[in-house]
Amino acid sequence: MTDVTGTNGELVTADGRPLRASLARALRRQKLQALLLVAPLFLFILVSFVLPIADMLFRSVENSIVAKVLPETTTALRSWDPQGDALPGEEVYAALYRDMLIAAKNRTATRVGQRLNYESSGFSSLFRSSARKVKRIKAGPYKPAMIKAHKKWGKLETWQVIANYNARYTPGYFYAAVDARIDTDGGVTMQDEDKRIYVNLFLRTLGLSLTITLATLVLGFPAAYLLALLPTAKSNLLLILVLLPFWTSLLVRTTAWIALLQQQGVINEFLVFLSIVGTDDRPRLIHNQVGTVIAMTHILLPFMVLPLYSVMKTIPKSYVRAAISLGAHPWRAFWAVYFPSTVPGIGAGAILVFILAIGYYITPDLVGGTSGTFISNRIALHISSSLNWGLAAALGVILLGIVLALYLLYDKIVGIDNMKLG
Amino acid sequence: MAAFPPYTSIPERIWHYAFRVICGCIFFFLIFPLVVVVPLSFNAVPFFTFTQEMLTFDPAGYSLKWYEDFFTNVNWQGAVQNSVIIAVFATLLSTTLGTVAALGLSRPNLPFKTLLMSVLISPMIVPLIISAAGMFFFYSRIGLQGTHVGVILAHAALGTPFVVITVTATLVGFDNSLIRAATGLGASPTTTFFKVIVPLILPGVISGALFAFITSFDEVVVVLFVGSFKQRTIPWQMFSGIREHISPTILAVATILVLVSIALLVTVELLRRRGERLRGVQST
After folding, report:
1. Closest in A37, A361, A400 to B100, CB measured
2. Quick check: is B94 in a domain?
3. Radius of gyration over every alpha carbon of chain B, rounded to an integer in angstroms
């Protein structure tokens, strides 16, 4: 046995290494192998997915454009007190003149104008016209010359906005996303009543998602219960009716609902045919919240039925029978014995549907009109039409935060590893 | 007619039928919208509703012209081509990466498993509009916005969680002694992989690939942002069609897509059964 015992009496392998070290090495190698297998996908997801999300986070606070286009002005402004009631001195106007000359040449002035216009209207035209007129200014003093070029340069408020929004990073977009703004004196106040939209939109998104979740639960529970009750051969057949919509393109289902719900659509024609409603007072079923709730309930129903069914399948039927034979009324047996066992399924389905619902874009866009749209539609609008990407990113970050919080809840209740498909 | 035990009370019998009627309505609600688009797609007039002629089964009320439009219109044919190209490449990419990663994830001694898993699953969790916004910002920075490559990479990222989940699920019942047996009999790791592992996990891989394919094939939000008109897919075309001018061609396309999804559903179901049989799992 000299082969397996080393000098200190510990076990060694054939090549004379201590067994413990050898084992650790083998284990390390196995770990490394496993990591290497996961590495390609991990890197791929990191680059193609996680980095874009990080980029969005960055964009929601990034604000380098003001300092980049007006470098001398922002430096000169540091010695000026925005809280005071005096305009900046000549050196700031001279710096502004030099910055504007360069900006006019590089055609970047309008971009700063656009950026600052998000915070206070009028900046877009101020920078556009100043960039045109600044070339005509030949010599100083620049303060009166700039004020002559555009009278807004002589207003305290203009300089306060520039002073408040010239940092490289700004919480401004997040304030805007919750209907607040940085006031001219640097404090944070709520937006005027008529300009508050985002908080309401978030609340509407949450409210409609909750309605949809409840609707899927009310419809999904009996359906899943029947599936669990029937013998396998029959329930598999019925399950096709759940799985087919699940597998069908989202746009097909949305299109179908447009065909069904519109003013001259199948449901309205049917109601008129039955003389339930007159042809002139057809109910509006689409381009409002009703349309969004109906269509999305249908689209998300399978996501409720499937988890519920998989939980109900595991509840032995003998439980309810035992309760009844012990004298419970069938109704009581159901609520006291069966229903509590389905709660994990209800939790899983409800959170899943809710998470999916609050991020929906396509269906609310097509059937929601103006009153039935979600926060996602606002994000899309800011990306493609109003081009306020910073605000879009800030709204996206808030939405992402809500979803991640719900997801952690889902993980607690169900666990990621238990996620099943089909 | 259900055969009731003799002790069943009248309210119980009534409830038995009432419950079935309620469930019937729910299943009707689930399937009716899909069924209704089929006859509407044969409409002779450009409306989304049943005409008098259709209801009286007058042949004049029906026509195939929307199908003809779909098969001849350049926009739609371009969309079909793009959809197939993007979905196929995205599926190949996500299936390859996802399968290899799933093999690593199901090793018992993988460190940081929870962290890795949550990152790999994240494309499925994050709402599409946020993924689309982020990808739009990032891909336009690096010049991939409005390119086929950009859309393929984006779709591959969205499809991988499905592959990872299905293949990992297949590997749960995997008997590791088969690998040791193959190695013990002198097979190289490569031979073991292709001769032993692949045939056993193939059903899981294929259904994962189908999930990835349908994810890309159906996906519209990311295409709208990361792609442009040149990358228009079928859903892209449908979306802009519904927004601009509604033509029953969309219903014809919808009908075809319903048929495609039936085919996919059947395939996945068959694969699942085959996979369970191969691994010796008792079918329920």
Report:
1. A37
2. yes
3. 24
Contacts of A298 in chain B (CB under 8 A): 29-30, 33
- The verdict on residue B157 lying in a domain is yes
Final residue belonging to a domain, choices A194, A213, A229: A194
Question: What residue in B sits closest to A29 (Cα-Cα)?
Answer: B109
Are the C-beta atoms of residues A242 and A303 closer than 8 Å to each other?
A: no
| Angle (CA) A354 A358 A361, round 5° | 130
Q: Is B109 on the interface with A (CB under 8 A)?
A: yes
> What is the per-residue pLDDT across B101-143, written as a single tens digit (0 to 9) for each?
999 998 888 888 888 988 998 998 899 999 999 999 999 999 9
User: Looking at the DSSP assignment, which residues form a beta bridge with residue A213?
Assistant: none
- DSSP lists the bridge partners of residue A374 as none
User: Which among A30, A59, A88 is the end of a domain?
Assistant: A59
The domain total for chain B is: 1
Write the pLDDT tens digit of every residue in B215-249: 899 899 999 999 988 999 999 999 988 888 777 88
Residues A304 and A186 in one domain: no
> Which residue do the tokens 């999804």 mark?
B261
User: Are residues A15 and A108 part of one domain?
Assistant: no
Q: Nearest C-alpha of chain A: how many angstroms from B30? A: 6
Q: B34, B50, B66, B130: which to substitute to probe chain A, counting the most A Cβ within 10 Å?
A: B130
Of A219, A220, A244, the CB nearest to B265: A244
Alpha carbons A55 and A46: distance in angstroms, whole number: 12
Q: Which pLDDT tens digit goes with each residue over A305-350? A: 998 998 898 888 899 889 989 988 888 899 999 998 898 889 888 9
Residue B178 forms contact with A (CB below 8 Å): no
- Nearest chain B CA: its distance from A83 CA (Å): 36
| Spatial separation of the C-alpha atoms in residues A104 and A100, rounded to whole Å | 6
Location of structure tokens 């996979």: B275
Same domain, A227 and A155: no
Q: How many domains does chain A have?
A: 3
Q: Output phi, psi for A233, to 5 deg.
A: -60, -45
Q: Does B217 touch chain A (CB under 8 A)?
A: yes
| CB contacts < 8 A (A, B) | 273
Q: Which residues contact B276 (CB under 8 A, 6 or more apart)?
A: B282, B283
Neighbour count for residue A5 (Cβ, 10 Å): 11
Q: What CATH number corresponds to the domain at position B219? A: 1.10.3720.10
The 10s digit of each residue's pLDDT in A73-108 is 888 888 888 777 788 888 888 888 888 888 888 888
Mark whether A260 and A386 lie in a shared domain. Answer: yes
Q: Is A6 found in the same domain as A94?
A: no
The range of the structural domain enclosing residue B174 comes to 65-278
Confirm or reject contact between B122 and chain A (CB < 8 A): yes
Nearest to A400 among B119, B126, B239 (CB): B126
Chain A hits for B107, Cβ within 8 Å: 30, 33-34, 37
Asked whether residue A390 falls in the same domain as residue A360, the answer is: yes
In which residue are the tokens 């044919």 written?
B77
The parent domain of residue A328 ranges over 198-418
What span, in angstroms and rounded, lies between the C-alpha atoms of A233 and A223? 16
Same domain, A270 and A409: yes
Residue B96 CB neighbours (<10 A): 17
| Residue B149 domain-assigned (yes or no) | yes
- Which residue in A160, A147, A45 sits closest to B135, CA to CA? A45
CB contact under 8 A, B239 and A36: no
* Domain membership flag for residue B246: yes
**Range scoring the smallest mean pLDDT among A262-271, A411-420, B136-145:** A411-420
SS3 A360: coil
Please state whether beta strands A188-190 and A180-182 pair in parallel, antiparallel, or not at all (unpaired). Answer: antiparallel
The answer on A271 and A412 residing in a single domain is yes
